[in-house]
Amino acid sequence: MCLNFKLLCKFLLLFLIGLSTKSYAINPEKYLVNQASSENFPLVSKGKTASVFVSKNDFPGVLKVAGHLENDIFQVSDLHAKRINKIAEAQDFVVIIGTFGKSEIIDQLVKKGKIDANQLRGKWEKFTTQIVENPFKGIKKALVIAGSDKRGTIYGIYDLSNQIGVSPWYYWADVPVKKQSELHVLPGIHSQGEPKVKYRGIFINDEAPALSGWAFEKFGGFNSKFYDKVFELILRMKGNYLWPAMWGRMFYVEDPQNAVLADEYGIVMGTSHHEPLTRAHAEWGKEKGKWDFTTNSETLINFWKDGIKRMGNKETIVTIGMRGDGDEPMTEGTAIGLLENIVKTQRNIIQEVTKKPIEETPQMWALYKEVQDYYDKGMIVPDDVTLLLCDDNWGNIRKLPELNSKPRKGGYGIYYHYDYVGGPRNYKWINTNQIERTWEQMDLAYQYGVDKIWIVNVGDIKPMEFPIEFFLDMAWNPEKFNAGNVQDYYVNWAKENFGNQFAGEIAQILKLYTKYNSRRKPELLDAKTYSVTNYNEADLVVADYKKLIEKASSINEKLQPEYKDAFYQLVLFPVLASSNLNEMYVATAKNHLYAEQGNAIANVYDEKVKTLFEKDSLLTNYYHTKLLNGKWNHMMSQTHIGYDNWQQPEKNVIPKTKTIEISNQTKAGISTEDFSKAETLINNRDLDHVWGFVESNGYISIESKNYSKALNSDAVKWTIIPNLGRTESGITLKPSNIKSIEISEQSPRLEYDVHFFSKGNVKVYAYFSPTLNFTIRDGLKYGIAFDNEKPQIINFNQDDSEKNWAESVADNIKIITSSHAIEKTGNHVLKFYGIDSALVLQKIVIETEEGKILKSYLGPPESFRKE
Ligand code: REL
Fold it and tell me: What pTM was estimated for this model as a whole?
């Protein structure tokens, strides 16, 4: 009794420590320590490892992944764990791995009451890891990793690998394995429960030239050797679903082992949104005629039939529906009847070939681009099919289920993008994704009931390592993430990959480089992006990037040598390359400016542009040839300089610069670069009765999080999303699954104290993240007013033109203007009323004198605030 009480206290303590140090994490619970104790399980101790038992009757994938664990133990401890096939051969300490209902040993442990069947029976992808004392003769202690199903067991194994210090990125980003000689598992039932999202996956896409070049050089193509690495990576991150590479690639044809291996590992295969019935787009050869159901249905039907035959019993989510050839709209106008007929035919094929009721084959229909219009206009989607809702290819969700819609058997999914080929411009080179926006959009989706499929387009996999893991971690349990703890993710990820020493600083670099890169995709940057004349904007942008270089370089110098390769790929390279690119465009802008003035300093900038352009190629070259002696050759070969339309240039093209002939008349050398530094002083006025943000230079600029007052309601709360957006943070109403709010005296609003020295008409520019109207309402709305003025109700999505959308996503901001009359100078309150959730306000700029706000990309810096 006394001992039990002590043990209970210990568990509680450990539990509380776990909770206090990591409210959530990649691994929410650390159950591995380096200290031996009579209660712990010695996985590795005093030069010996526990042996590993897996029943031969278990899934081959489980046997395979158990081998990975043995290898991981070796990497950590330099000791080989012995594999045992008969439990009678086991002695003293053994890791017993098995799947409930498949491993006779796990079933015996259940029967003996040593592990609880209720934890596993009927569960999806669940594992429990626990110590069992004296389970069988000769065994003192077993560490039992039991899975409810194949993936449950596999996740349990990889979870232990992760606990002993093996990152999912050990191969894909060369994260080193830290040597340890004592590894002990704590008592307790270690489990991550069931995932909240059923299918969680990635789409390898737009994979040429980078990933293709690499895969062909290292593996001879997109074959099973290549996919072995991909499947392992996905499973180590507890994902389960893949759309394979499809740029001219044929997953099932190029190497028949691809599908066999996926099945062995338990990866659920799919094909992309426009490749129905498991057939790769590239399998449709010219000899088959037109990709057109109205004129070529027989060939299409046979083509699809073969796809389902080939699929056999392998776990698959079958894509249904149809787009035009090569991911184009199928017809002009809306072809609802045709599409419904196609889907009916496809479902008949599935049923006929599988000989199973149609509901027993998971299917998904993506409402991608124009297909969503069909749906909005009434296209019927069978209830058992998962409706895959999509973003706009730029990370902004286009559609969510209505709050009061009746549940669908097939549920809903989201197809999201971290990489894209298409308008307004490709973005494929480097990571530009802020996890804060991913969190905010996917949280929205989850709150609206999207929990069947989450899949993200990850381009070449590298260099999206960080946001990929975030996406899959979040998919496991979106409920663990909130606006307040997303920032912890950076730190935990840095710890997992680089150890504790510099985790805080590395986290800071990750969060700032992604913020800076997300302001505008590198492919869209040019000499005109940031202002070289106003608000010191361009120089500040360059200086901020340079600070990141300084920090990253200094960490790099201090890091243990074994971390350096990983650090280069995951942190240093993106910082160096992004900084360099921005500096090059700013130098180009200065070259243009000075050349126009006939100032010979233009020539200095001309040289600088050349140097920086060359540096870009040198950085790429280092990544390809020097880093790990060429392990990642080709991976950074995506062109990114010299775009003149949405499609990439063949090769990087240096920006055009001008040179000045030096003559006696030429202005030389000295020039002040800061042309119109805004007066920031408030001109000695008496500030005694002034409060809030103070007008100066014809405007007041405010970061949204710096409100004076926030009024919440019982249902919703203003929630700051730190670091989200282009300048500071974002603010939004959470939870998001609420009906529109009617404005009243008490309704939720933000108040900003401001002080005007002038009066008359003012304009308010409200800067928002480019959220789309994902509802069937006419748009998302907010209210805005000064003081007691009647609030103006503004439809954020009023202009839903293609042009407006393209500008908003390119600028990664949508600015909405309202006009107001200010009758008196002095203190005022700007009131921002919440009506619809999901709008994310980043910044507010009030123009008090027309034409006084100078042209810039990020808007004027924040004004002086009198507290
Ligand atoms: O990003 C997308 O979803 C599409 O552009 C791609 O799926 C598309 O298939 C493209 O790579 C080529 O077909």
Answer: 0.96
